[in-house]
Each structure stands twice: as C-alpha cells, then as structure tokens.
Design a protein that fits this description.
Structural class: alpha/beta
Shape: elongated
Radius of gyration: 32 Å
Distance between the termini: 82 Å
Largest sheet: 5 strands, mixed
Order of helices and strands: EEEEEEEHHHEEEHEHEHHHH
Bound molecules: zinc ion
Number of domains: 4
Protein name: ISL3 family transposase
Pfam families: DDE_Tnp_ISL3, Zn_ribbon_ISL3
Strand content: 25-35%
Length: about 290
C-alpha cells in the first residue's frame, strides 16, 4: 500500500511529495486527468487556462494533523453558447467547490457537531488532531443531512443548538434509526414546509408541543400522530398523580381507619421478627 491508496482512484490524484513532522503530515498531490467537465454546460474540455494550488485539511494520521496541497488547473470552456469561459476543475470525490477541508473530514465534523454540539465538540476535535471551531461544528450540524427517501414513520423532536437560547427540530426515520434533517427552529410553519415536500409520511411521532401538532395537521392531515414513548410515560405518570391527588382525603381516612382496627403492616412485621428472636436479642432491641 502506498500513500496514493488513501485517495479515491476516480479522483485521478498522484502523490508527488510528502513531509512528516512530529505534529503534521503534509502531502503534495496533483491531478492527472487530461480533461474536465464544465460545471455550467457539462461539456468536456482539454484546454488548460492556468494552474493554482489549494490546501485542504484531511483526516488525521498517527496523532498528526494532515494537510493536502493539491496542484489544480483552470480550464477554458469551449462551448461558445456557455456563459462560463473559465472554470476551476472539481474533484467531487475529494472536496467540494471552495472547501478548505476534504469531504471525509467534513463528514467527521458533522457527526461530532450532531453528537456533542459546539463547545464540547471542539474539545473532542482537539483530542482527535482535527481542531475545529465551535461555529464550524454547528454549521456542519445544520448542513443538509444526506438526502434519503421519504420515511414511513417520522420522529419529530426539538434539540438545543445552544441550551436555553437557540432550539431547532430534529427529524428521524424511526424505522431506519437515521437522522434525516435538522430544521432551524421549532415553528409549525417550518415543519409543515418540510412535510409538504415529503407527503408520503404515514405516522409521525412527536412530543406534546402544539406547534408540531399544528404543522403536521396542516401539511400532512392524512398521517397518524402518535405521542413518543417518553411523553406517553410522562402523560401516564401525571394522570396517576392527578387521580391520587383527587383521592387524598379518602386515602387518609382509610389509613387512619386501618390503624384503629388492626395493627399496621409494619407493626405486624415487627412482631413477627421479634417472635423469632431470643430473649437476649429482644432485650437489646428494647434498649
Ligand atoms: Zn461551459
């Protein structure tokens, strides 16, 4: 295996040099594909306009940060009808246009942002040798989640971008146990907008927020709304508490009555235990 094997073959990248320090692995690469496709009209062109370099952060290696320095080219679009004359070549399997990080590092940052949020996520990225600011982690978390087919059973719940200040909505495919999307707020209108684009949802599990119920009714009236398990148990606990609150006087009366009529359960147990003890143990208990 060589350094080159760490990059997708279809990207056509060749490693030309590398440097290793105690903290950093720097890899120089260049592209080899003779042509590139215009991003506007899609026409292939072989006419190189100029060269430029781009530096990208990549996944860490052996407790070192990894930086890629890639020699890229600008091409001329030869389609006379195309509004774009010059364009930068793209490597869709490695990095996005104008990105400063590789796609695979971006995916890691997104997972950390989703799992831990800003500040705790930043501390983890430092330990993992991919230091990332909290703003970047939160931006990654808000990025469109991988597009998936419309779920049949959708879970809707709120989550904190910043606890006590800024809340959003998380949408989960409850059958595949995958996060589908993150909405920027908890408004009925925002959820309704998402559901209108995914009308095949059959069942929506939600908390007790009226905004979510309203958004679902508005955009997806045919779907069945169910309370999620946590709120179902909360409803049950509160219903039981209310029932006992209403019977408080009656319960007190029954307890007092039982005290008058016969010894309490605790007293009965104490008597039974005492009956099984020796005289010496009984005298110790009385002391
Ligand atoms: Zn073009």
């Amino acid at each position: 295996m060589t350094l080159q094997d760490f990059f997708p073959q279809e990207a056509g990248l060749v490693v030309t040099d590398f440097a290793l320090t105690p903290d950093l692995l720097a890899i120089a690469l260049k592209t080899t594909c003779p042509s590139s496709q215009c991003p506007d009209c899609g026409q292939l062109t072989y006419r190189i306009h100029s060269h430029y370099r781009r530096v990208l952060a990549d996944l860490p290696w052996q407790a070192r940060r990894v930086l890629l320095r890639i020699e890229l080219r600008k091409f001329r679009c030869m389609n006379a009808a195309c509004p774009r004359q010059i364009f930068c070549e793209r490597l869709p399997h490695v990095f996005a246009s104008h990105a400063r990080t590789t796609d695979r590092l971006k995916a890691l940052q997104k997972q950390i942002g989703l799992a831990l949020g800003g500040r705790p996520g930043t501390r983890l990225t430092e330990k993992l040798f991919v230091p990332t600011s909290k703003d970047t982690l939160l931006r990654r978390a808000k990025d469109k989640v991988d597009s998936l087919t419309t779920p049949r059973v959708l879970g809707v719940d709120d989550f904190a971008f910043r606890r006590g200040q800024n809340y959003g909505t998380i949408l989960v495919d409850l059958e595949k146990h995958r996060v589908l999307d993150l909405l920027p707020d908890r408004e009925a209108k925002t959820l309704a907008c998402w559901l209108k684009a995914h009308p095949q949802v059959e069942i929506v599990s939600r908390d007790r927020a009226t905004a979510y119920a309203q958004g679902i009714r508005e955009a997806c009236p045919q779907s069945i709304q169910v309370t999620d398990r946590w709120h179902l148990l909360k409803n049950l606990r509160e219903a039981i508490e209310r029932w006992f609150d209403g019977k408080r006087e009656k319960i007190r009366e029954l307890i007092q009555k039982s005290h008058c009529e016969k010894p309490s359960v605790i007293q009965e147990l104490t008597n039974q235990v005492a009956g099984g003890l020796s005289d010496r143990q009984k005298s110790r208990m009385e002391q």
